[in-house]
Amino acid sequence: MFKKVLIANRGEIALRVIRTCREMGIKTVAVYSTADRDSLHVKFADEAVCIGKPQSSDSYLNIPHLMSAAEITNADAIHPGYGFLAENAKFAQICADHQIKFIGPTPDMINAMGDKITAKETMIKAGVPVVPGGEGLLQSLDEANGLAKGMGYPVILKATAGGGGKGMRIVWEEAEMERAYNTAKAEAGAAFKNDGIYMEKFVEEPRHIEIQVAGDQYGSVCHLSERDCSIQRRHQKLVEESPSPFMTDELRQKMGDAAKKAAGAINYESVGTIEFLVDKHRNFYFMEMNTRIQVEHCVTEEVINFDLIKEQLKIAMGEKISGKDYYPQGHAIECRINAEDPYNDFRPSPGRISVLHQPGGHGVRVDSHAYAGYVIPPFYDSMIGKLITIARTRDEAIGTMYRALSEYVIEGIKTTIPFHLQLMQDERFRSGDFNTKFLEGFVLR
User: Fold this and answer.
1) Rounded to two decimals, what is the model's pTM?
2) Which of 9, 89, 316, 334 is most buried, with most CB under 10 Å away?
3) What pLDDT is attached to residue 251?
């Protein structure tokens, strides 16, 4: 049992980890930038340490400051949350070098899945379906043109160290290749300090469906079913749900088995997610693995009645998992509540929350660090909370979500609540007829 866990993160996920640690009798240490001194995770932790100025590079990405905070508070473990350093192998190694347990996979596992090319090669060897594409990084524009001709348009260029849509360009015809190639490399280099890009066949009308997995230190791996994350804007997820309305029992079995193969190929330990693209014919292809807890983990928690943070902590302590697979009971939907103006191209809307009323009632869960009087800082991700509803059926979960959104009052800033309210009434969404391009034709009224 850990005695004290430092959470190397902020906001909602830091508060989420603190809650589970408290239930398990584990002391917690919050870290915070000067911009976050009034955040709830700082108030609810047993101890709190300021680690720097508002910019992430001076605080939440500053490894020496984080390690100093762990040492002066005698923390014996660090939970990275998601984002920031959650998938940073160097940070995981530094924790190990200082005899502080990194609550997540080993540095080698993070590296194996952190580089897209290496991950794809590993999946091919493990027998996991991958999107057809070139072998290795593109070395020149001529190579890109030749490969695209052989593969057939459309193709997609991706940053090997990428995520969140950075360094990614779809190329529909040869005339677009030069500009797309140069732009993707420049964007990847600026975002990740690595301008390596590769090419894949572009999967049209895809669903983004991911499988939650868990593995222990003894070689056991299980899956905890799927989440559909296809409602996205510029590769950023806005709504997630489980089970997927596109899923069949046969497809769930195949994708679950593939996800276990993927995790087993690197002897994965901790919780993680295998992300797939699924085409309209229900062919699925490995996209990437997230070697961390995800924003949308609570959707899975609600349909399988399972605390994934607790499981993550127990695995890090050396406990064995049950090894059995889990399947959804009922239906859960999550709406990300962001401090953004949906009527103004989702422009960030930081500032002070003057009024806040969160919904409640049967089948409603709110994970948020916001409160009336809290100032949303402009330096970080704009998500201020997650609204989750759980019901027996998808229709009921949508109905509960619409009701809960109608009760959610946030004043002083703009939020994505109006967008979600309209989405819950959209007939195509309600029927389950959507893919990752759904929002391209969505007009907010």
Assistant:
1) 0.90
2) 334
3) 98
